[in-house]
Amino acid sequence: MTNQRHPVHLSIASSSEIEHTARQLKVTREEFLISGILPQHPPRPMILESWRRCHAMRVNPSLRYAPLAVTHEVQLYHLREASQLVMRAARPVMSHLSDFLADSGYVIVLSDADGCLLEVTGDAGVRRRLASIDFVPGGDWSEAAAGTNALGTALADGHVVQLLGAEHYCSGWQDLTCTAAPIRHPLSGEIMGILDVTGNYRLIRPFLSSFIAAMALQVQQEMRELLTPTRKGKFQATFQTATFSSSRGTSSRAFTMNTDRKQHRTGEDVPGTSTGDDLRLLLRMQKKRVHNAELLAAAVSAISASLDIDVTLEKVAKQTANLLRLESASVCLFGESDEMVSLHTWSKQSGWRLTSPHDLVALLGQSEVVSLIRERGEPVIIDDVLTSVILPASLLQQRGIRSLLLLPLIAARGAIGFILAPKCIHYHWTVDDVLLGLTLAAHAATAIENARLFTSLQQHTHHVEVINDLAQLLSTLPDPSQQFEVVLRHIVEIVDMDAGMILLRDQPADGLTLAAHCGLPEAVPLDLCKPSLRAFHNVACLIMTTGKSLMTCNIERERHIICEPLDTVGVCDLMVVPLATGNTTLGVLLIGSLSHRKLTTEDLALLTSMGQQLGLTLTNARLRRTASEMEALREADHLKSQFITAVSHDLQSPLTAIRASVEGLLDQGGVQSAQMHEHLLHNIAGQTSRLDRLVGELLDLSRIEAGVLLFDRDWIKLPVLIADTLAKFEELHSGCRVERDLAADLPLQYVDPIRLAQVLWNLLENALKYASSCTSIKVEARWTRNEVLIGVADHGPGIPTDEREKIFQHFYRLERDQGTHTQGSGLGLAICQGIVQAHGGRIWVEDQPEGGSVFRFALPLPTASLTELEPLEKTELFGVNTEE
Ligand code: ADP
Fold first, then answer.
1. Which of 183, 276, 574, 619 could form a Cys-Cys staple with 552, CB 3.0–4.6 A?
2. Is the CB of 834 inside a 6 Å radius of any atom of ligand 1?
3. Closest C-alpha residue for ligand 1 atom 18
4. Which of 807, 848, 855 to mutate to test the pocket of ligand 1 (most atoms within 8 A of CB)?
């Protein structure tokens, strides 16, 4: 038979409970003050008495306060005399609290069960303020307590109460927060007084509730000790058992005290009142309660000590087992969708371990029991599992469990899990067990939530750091998409795993190719088609289709397909995330460990963020590449158009000239003078050779570009080659004198002499063409340790700085020369550059300090290996005419 009991609440009142009580009291009070008719459910006598006084004084019902009743000193004496036991018991606690809270804006107040102030200590400033409204010992706080303040609620409900902005019936104190705990008589459980802390603080401090509750318990214990015979000579009391059962809060005291030490000895029968047995029983019970309270305090402080979630869970399980004297206890936490996600067990034999929550589901029978906890936050108490209909008794019995207590862990957001307290014997759970368990569970829920918050904060910080770290690396790499190995190694290192792989979508084939790998066991052949790697490939394909991250330890379905092949390559745990941006998955990142790790969903979330970051970088790199390819294509297109325009123009002008000359010859039908005849023929010859030259240049260029311009190299003496070329140049351009500055000891060069002469010739012709005076041309040749330098200088207009590189491009002509009569195709320098570069050299132009420009080209000196070379066989020689 299921035996569920309704435990007596020993709880800290929730704000809604307080509000409810307060609202009700306020409304009833107002009605009473107006009508004088007693409500159907009258409040505690103490409150009622206060209302009666207000009624008699014709206090305006809407007035939120009534004057405090101040007693005369004699009355105060009597008051204290009557509460001597509680006052004496509370004294050490009051002084301890007072020291502890010092001048922090708190006062510590001890009131009797009727709300009369017995003692007010603590912050002097606050005390002064309170004194101004007669809040002094002897003040009948019941006026204030009659309504909505913490003290009143504590008295009304017997709860430990914390109230923010307590609405007192005295003006000026609406902002105070008050925390109050009832002090109960150690034997009868009667409320003997209230210990409360009130002050100038606005913040609710949950710890204060437990703290004051503990202090109230200590007062209770102190009272118990004062009442025991061992404290002989200190304090002795006689109890009138008749009053134990009397209703609380009447004007008569719940007990009477006799300070005459000689008259009575506690423990001895008091004639006509109670038997010694009853007293002993009561004392034993109280002793046990105090002992429990001590155990509870120790357990609570143990579970609140750590912010590590694992440690906290372990402590919760262990402390529950200790507190309820069990062999073991478990903590089960609910996941986001209320499923059971983790189950931690502590047992005396095997210590702390994580078990599968599925075990628990089986154990609790698909959990009607669990829904009781989850939805209603109620504890479940089962004294004998065999008689239970809602539990799979046989399963529980198999595990040796006979009795069960399930304590809900209730946090601000609802039930977060429960504590499972099993007993191996058929056992009647006591009210004390339940009370202790529930109190511990309440504290445990807060401790677990705190630890979780702290853990998630730490994880968040770590997450941000790691992502930043990766972002930093990616931003320093010139092209991360070309350096996957570096990126992968970095990721493997920061997630503290062993091996990794990046597979990218192969665009045309729509398959996956291995872009990078690291840390795999050497024996694994890096071919995705090989059986050993097919497992990675398969799981990667799955991610490409679903776009969702996966962790092998989370896989339920397809476990054998995915995990077993991984075992064969020595990978234990694997996390696989997509490299994705938006809806596009560009590839997959696989990170594995060669030994078992405790991977969590947070690890997977972190790796997923990394995958996204990498995906974004990849997309950016691709976009950048496409953009530069587009730019190159646009440039090529532009050059091609320029080329066509230039070629058509350059071909057209000599052709037009030839046609004009031929037509001249034909038209005049031989009647023109011999001089004219000759002029026309010369013109035709000149334009033909211009055409020939242009076509030759075009051919050279296309061969240079296609890399098929062959060179016929030989060992030559440069001074001879230069001198020959200059001589021919001067001969062709009569009257043109080129200055020479040639080092005599120039080393032999292994070059194609005809092509080199072509370069020199071109530069000389440009100098002549653009510098207007041929006398100022100078050719110099010298050599350094590495290269031979040849320069052709002129005193022409020079080259504008921003066009110095452009003049080596095909068809490029300086802006100032475009559309002038100076003939040119813009190909000469491009060909020169092609020839020089094919010889391993470079060509450039410089300014001359005195005006004009120097075109220089440098050829590397022959290397030792080259000097041993036999002259190359002539394979092809394209005609180069340097003698136009
Ligand atoms: P072309 O002379 O047939 O136009 P080049 O490639 O030889 O073609 O020269 C490219 C351009 O460089 C010329 O059109 C001219 O504008 C400029 N240039 C070349 N050499 C000189 C020079 N010595 N002085 C000034 N401008 C020059």
1. 574
2. no
3. 766
4. 807
Tell me the per-residue pLDDT of 248-265, one tens digit each, with 9 for 90 and over: 222 222 222 222 333 333
Confidence bin at 177 (pLDDT 50/70/90): low
* Alpha-helix residue ranges (DSSP H) falling in 577-600: none
Quick check: 602 pLDDT over 60? yes
pLDDT band, residue 200 (cuts 50/70/90): low
Distance (angstroms) between ligand 1 centre and the Cα of 811 equals: 10
CA count, 13 A, side-chain hemisphere, 815:
5
824 lines ligand 1 (CB under 6 A): yes
- How many Å apart are CA 210 and CA 540, to the nearest integer? 54
| Euclidean distance between CA atoms 832 and 723, whole angstroms | 19
Residue with the smallest CA separation from ligand 1 atom 14 is 813
Atom of ligand 1 nearest to the CA of 766: 20
Q: What's the CA gap between 423 and 420, in Å, rounded?
A: 10
Written as six digits, the tokens of 707 are 């890399």
Distance of CA 228 to the CA centre of its chain: 59
The closest of 861, 855, 628 to 763, measured between CA atoms, is 855
Distance 203 CA to ligand 1 centre (A): 85
Contact 853, 776 (CB under 8 A): no
CA of 789 to the centre of ligand 1 (A): 20
From 813, 820, 831, 844, mutation site for ligand 1 pocket: most ligand atoms within 8 A of C-beta: 813
Higher pLDDT, 624 or 153: 624
Q: Please choose, from the candidates 365, 299, 300, 364, the residue with its C-alpha nearest in 3D space to the C-alpha of residue 332.
A: 364
**Is 828 near ligand 1, meaning CB less than 6 Å away?**
yes
Q: Is 814 in the pocket of ligand 1 (CB under 6 A)?
A: yes
721 lines ligand 1 (CB under 6 A): no
- The C-alpha atoms of residue 337 and residue 368 are separated, in whole angstroms, by 16
Across 731-871, where does the E strand assignment appear? 739-742, 749-751, 778-783, 787-793, 842-847, 853-860
Cβ of 852 closer than 6 Å to ligand 1, yes or no, is: no
User: Burial of 634 by CB count in 10 Å (0-12 exposed, 13-18 middle, 19+ buried)?
Assistant: exposed
The upper half-sphere exposure of residue 444, i.e. CA atoms within 13 Å in the direction of its Cβ, equals 32
- How many helices (H) and strands (E) the chain has is answered by 24, 27
Contacts of 516 (CB under 8 A, 6+ apart): 484, 485, 487, 488, 500, 501, 502
Q: What does residue 505 show for φ and ψ, rounded to 5 degrees?
A: -65, 130
758 CB within 6 A, ligand 1:
no
**Secondary structure (H, E, C), 555-572:** CCCCHHHHHHHHHHCCCC
Which residue has tokens 């979508």? Answer: 505
pLDDT at res. 804: 93
d(CA 338, CA 371): 10
Ligand 1 atom 16, closest CA: 814
Between strands 139-140 and 69-70, the pairing is antiparallel
Ligand 1 centre to CA of 532 (Å) is: 64
Determine whether the shortest distance from the Cβ of 222 to ligand 1 is under 6 A: no
Which residues are within 8 A (CB) of 54 and not within 5 positions of it... i.e. 6 or more apart? 29, 33, 66, 143, 146
Q: pLDDT per residue over 344-397, tens digit each?
A: 888 888 777 777 767 777 777 665 677 777 777 777 778 787 777 667 778 888
pLDDT for 473: 85
Q: Rounded to the nearest whole angstrom, what is the distance from the C-alpha of residue 657 to the centroid of ligand 1?
A: 23
In the prediction, which pLDDT does 365 show? 63
Is the CB of 780 inside a 6 Å radius of any atom of ligand 1? no
What DSSP element (H or E) covers 316? helix 309-323
Whether the full predicted model's pTM is greater than 0.90, yes or no, is no
For residue 854, how far is its CA from the centre of ligand 1 (angstroms)? Answer: 12
Within 13 Å and on the Cβ side, how many CA atoms surround 80? 16
- The verdict on the CB of residue 826 being under 6 Å from ligand 1 is yes
Higher-pLDDT residue of 59 and 56 is 56
